[in-house]
Amino acid sequence: MTTRTKYASGEPCWADLQTKDVAAAKDFYGKLFGWTFTDLPTPDGRTYAQAFIGKDLVAVIAPQNPQQEAAGTRGQWNIYLAATDAEEIAEDAVHAGGKLEFGPEQVADTGVLAFIAPPAGGTTGIWQAGTHVGSRLYNQAGALAWAELSTPEPQSAVAFFQQLFGHEVTEYAQDDGGSYSTLIVNGDEVAGIVPADEGEEAVWQIYFGVADVRKSVETATSAGGHVLVEPEDQPEAGSLATIEDPQGGVLSLIQI
Question: Is 90 exceeded by the pLDDT of residue 175?
Answer without folding.
Answer: no
